[in-house]
Design brief:
Layout: H1 3-14, H2 16-37, H3 39-53, E1 59-68, H4 70-77, H5 79-84, E2 87-102, E3 105-114, E4 124-128, H6 130-134, E5 144-148, H7 149-152, E6 165-170, E7 173-184, E8 205-210, H8 211-219, E9 224-232, H9 238-254, E10 262-266, H10 271-312, H11 314-322, H12 327-365, H13 379-401, H14 409-413, H15 427-432, H16 444-452, H17 454-492, E11 497-506, H18 507-516, E12 522-537, E13 540-550, E14 561-564, E15 576-580, H19 581-586, E16 594-598, E17 603-611, E18 619-622, H20 623-627, E19 641-649, H21 655-665, E20 668-673, H22 674-717, H23 719-727, H24 732-770, H25 784-809, H26 812-821
Parallel strand pairs: 3-8, 5-7, 13-18, 15-17
Antiparallel strand pairs: 1-9, 1-10, 2-3, 2-6, 2-9, 4-7, 5-8, 6-7, 11-19, 11-20, 12-13, 12-16, 12-19, 14-17, 15-18, 16-17
Helix pairs in contact: 1-12, 2-10, 2-12, 2-13, 2-22, 3-10, 3-12, 10-13, 10-17, 10-22, 10-24, 12-13, 12-22, 16-24, 17-22, 17-24, 17-25, 22-25, 24-25
């Protein structure tokens, strides 16, 4: 074996701590790179496997006009038709949006009538009563029901138990049901409200009951259904699904069913699937983002570590160069050290990354009703991640060793402390001497070390900056997501309750109704209008959207205008409108564009402001502008009519009775409790929040590791200096001060550098991760900076204690003897 190869292994063995640091850096980097990237395929595979296991419909038809159940029975009995078009199963059911009353409170509900146990969209039961356990057909011909687990949960739900009763409300009809089981359907992962298109986990109840009982309740026993589900033989195969869909539509037409009453959705087009795709997509993007940050940190760490190693071995390098060593072999020597250690780090990092990916999948799966989890190994992710990490280590170790080959052997062999040549106090030293704590002679050492060894200081600042950027990005994301969600309810929508009526009513009727109530029943109320509108942009129909109208003098609704020609809703008129930032981006609408809106007839309005809030996918107007120039008639709403109400109740008001009172006068389509909505939204983003909090913790650990690595390698390169101080009898506590303040000052400089760099990375990260799903502020909360600096100081403090302890243990005679021998 060549002498340089022997020296590689000798150095790896002798410098155990440095070797462990490099192995740890590579292992942590690979864990970060693989953890999220490899976790995304696991989440998708688990989701699709659960779709298959629960036999979730490949396609579904929703009918606005119910049809006879026998229409589906004919298809079920036509085996030739099913076989020809590769249809595995067809099933009809009844589904409607209604209300329930539970514990004196009313909640919106999705009521589903099925022939339980149903074959398609099977309900996974989590808790079953003794009756349900004894009788698999416990829903048949009874007033029993199954309720969704999100609504029944004790965290964001209503803490519902089996055996309890709920009262079903459908218009003037009422029916009592007994909860015999609590279950979940993968179609309702996010429990999206069909009216508002928002997740209402915990306050919207999904209820399954017997189909015949529901038919009796709604249609006096007529065997009607309004939804048809089907699966194909090769599950989730879009080609087979499309063929089956066309065949079923032709079959429906042959039976005389009006196709204009049918709305079709494939399994990946449902609103719930869109929410899932947004969450899973954010995980994938987050994995890419933090993987890149991890690689950057690895680059800096390897460069810093090997640079310090090279500086500590200058005399050896000079000796080899004087003996005629090829400079390329010297560079190759340090590349080999890094490569061998990086391979060991990869061997450790790959299984850790896989375990991290599994942990991420399990963490996210808590939000979704998964019964089965799959952990496929996508070889490309592991191979690509390992090669990238190894390549980064090789390149940056070579770059860090290359400069030493450009100096002469004499320069390389000169003592390290002789590299600093100064005849008088530097400007920086004079500036710091104004501070009382830096006037002592021993405190001049860190100042000189920082400002006279600029290259080393720059590398150290870069190393600390990269770890700070990761921390700042994670903390800012968590803080801003919490802030945006809280502002949505505490600043922009401040009413405690929101009511949507089944049909518009005269505003005067609401005023008279409020006057008739006792004065302390409602503290304050405001009228609202919520309408559906067509959207036409540049002559192209872009579908529809919701327009929300509020009183011009509203105190409940304060819109966050992030850009606009006007910033006050009072300035809106009949031809100008605000749009939600997310909705505008989705449809490529910019400030000043003219769009056509309306339902019965279209008319032109100009976009004069963008509203930036956590969920901002609507248009925003004032009631006064809505009624001006007969605009309201274009939406089928008479002038001076409204269809909604915002209010704050008085103290000690019985909300259940108040709801009954309002409902008796104005039929209610939707009743929203702001507190419950906030909890539902928190549940919606909890998976992403959990990941970000985890990354904050990882960032802290990496910050400590980076600080310690930087300080330790700095100590290795200056061991002779500290030995000299020790020989002169320097008090050990001065060592602590010198080490701590040198790195503390570098951390402050790093924070200054991190401010512009952190903002840039955060902006790019949020734009990449969030896309157009949510509006999150792009500012970094003020408390992020002191928190990060404080964590940096804690890291420095821990590392200082370790290094000071080592200095105290150094035996002066043995250390000098070993250096003379070497």
């Amino acid at each position: 074996m060549k002498i340089m190869d022997t020296k590689v292994f000798r150095e790896i063995k002798q410098q155990k701590f440095r070797s462990i640091l490099i192995v740890s850096i590579v292992a942590v980097t690979l864990t970060m790179v693989l953890g999220m990237r490899a976790g995304y395929p696991m989440v998708i595979a688990s989701y699709e496997e659960n779709l298959r296991n629960s036999n979730v419909a490949d396609g579904r038809y929703s009918l606005t006009a119910p049809v006879l159940e026998e229409s589906v029975e004919k298809i079920q009995n036509d085996s030739e038709f099913l076989t020809t078009h590769k249809i595995a199963d067809v099933e009809g059911r009844l589904i409607t949006y209604t209300e329930i009353e539970y514990n004196g409170e009313r909640f919106p509900s999705i009521l589903i009538g099925v022939e339980f146990p149903n074959q398609i969209n099977q309900v996974s039961l989590q808790s079953v009563s003794s009756l349900g356990a004894a009788n698999p057909n416990f829903l048949a011909n009874s007033s029993n029901c199954i309720i969704d687990a999100a609504f029944a949960g004790n965290l964001i739900g209503q803490d519902t138990q089996v055996g309890e009763n709920i009262s079903l409300q459908l218009g003037a009809m009422e029916k009592n049901l007994t909860i015999q089981a609590i279950g979940q359907d993968l179609d309702f992962c996010y429990v999206v409200d069909p009216v508002s298109q928002m997740s209402l986990m915990g306050q919207l109840a999904v209820i399954w009951m017997d189909l015949s009982e529901m038919q009796q309740f709604m249609f006096n026993g007529m065997p009607l259904i309004n939804q048809v589900l089907f699966t194909v033989e090769d599950r989730l195969n879009e080609d087979e699904i499309n063929i089956a869909s066309d065949a079923l539509l032709q079959n429906f037409a042959s039976q005389g069913i009006d196709l204009s009453t049918i709305q079709y959705e494939m399994f990946d087009e449902t609103i719930d699937r869109q929410f899932f795709n947004a969450d899973a997509g954010s995980m994938d993007k987050m994995g890419t983002l933090f993987g890149i940050i991890g690689l950057i940190m690895c680059c800096v760490a390897i460069y810093n570590t090997i640079s310090r190693l090279v500086q500590s071995q200058r005399k050896n390098i000079g000796l080899f160069m004087s003996l005629g060593a090829n400079p390329n072999n010297i560079v190759l020597h340090y590349v080999k050290i890094t490569f061998y250690l990086a391979v060991i780090g990869s061997i450790i990092g790959i299984p850790l990354g896989h375990l991290f990916a599994i942990g991420m999948t399990k963490l996210l799966a808590r939000v979704w009703p998964f019964q089965v989890l799959l952990f496929p190994i996508v070889a490309e992710e592991y191979i690509f991640g390992s090669l990238i990490t190894l390549g980064v280590c090789i390149v940056f170790s070579g770059l860090s060793a290359f400069p030493i080959t450009k100096i002469t052997p004499r320069e390389a062999m000169s003592a390290i402390f002789n590299r600093i040549k100064a005849t008088k106090a530097a400007f920086s030293e004079r500036i710091f001497s104004w501070l009382p704590g830096f006037r002592a002679i021993h405190m001049k050492v860190p100042i000189r070390e920082i400002f006279l060894r600029k290259r080393k200081s720059a590398v150290t600042i870069l190393a600390i900056t990269t770890s700070m950027i990761m921390l700042i990005t994670s903390i800012a994301m968590v803080g801003n997501m919490f802030g945006a969600l809280n502002d949505n309810f505490d600043v922009y929508n401040t009413s405690e309750y929101r009511v949507l009526f089944e049909s518009p009513v005269p505003a005067a009727n609401i005023s008279n109704f409020m006057q008739d109530l006792p004065s302390d029943t409602i503290e304050h109320y405001e009228n609202t209008i919520t309408v559906y509108s067509n959207l036409n942009v540049d002559g192209k129909n872009e579908g529809g959207f919701i327009i929300e109208c509020y009183q011009a003098n509203s105190t409940f609704r304060n819109m966050n205008i992030i850009s606009g020609e006007i910033t006050d809703k009072n300035s809106l008129n009949s031809s100008t409108i605000f749009l939600g930032n997310t909705m505008a981006k989705d449809n490529e609408i910019v400030l000043g564009d003219e769009i056509k809106i309306g339902l019965i007839d279209n008319f032109t309005v100009r976009v004069v402001g963008m509203v930036g809030e956590f969920i901002d996918n609507s248009g925003y107007w004032t009631i006064e502008s809505f009624n001006a120039n007969n605009n309201s008639l274009n939406f089928g709403v008479p002038s001076n009519y409204v269809n909604g109400l915002l209010f704050n109740p008085g103290e000690n008001v019985d909300i259940g009775k108040l709801r009954e009172t309002i409902g008796a006068e104005f039929p209610i389509a939707q009743w929203v409790d702001a507190h419950q909505s906030q909890q539902s939204m928190m549940a919606l983003i909890q998976s992403m929040m959990s990941l970000l909090v985890l990354f904050v913790v990882i960032g802290m650990v990496i910050g400590v590791l980076f600080s310690f690595n930087t300080m330790y390698m700095g100590f290795i390169s200056r061991e002779n200096d500290f030995l000299a101080f020790k020989a002169m009898g320097t008090n050990p506590r001065y060592f602590s001060k010198m080490i701590f303040w040198e790195n503390a000052i570098l951390s402050v400089f790093s924070l200054i550098v991190t401010i512009p760099a952190g903002y840039f990375v955060y902006w790019q990260s949020m734009t990449y991760m969030m896309g157009d799903n949510y509006y999150i502020p792009l500012s970094i909360p003020w408390y992020t900076w002191p928190v990060v600096l404080g964590l940096s100081f804690i890291s420095i403090g821990l590392a200082t204690r370790k290094l000071t302890k080592r200095i105290r243990k150094m035996n002066l005679a043995e250390e000098l003897r070993s250096r003379m021998v070497s």
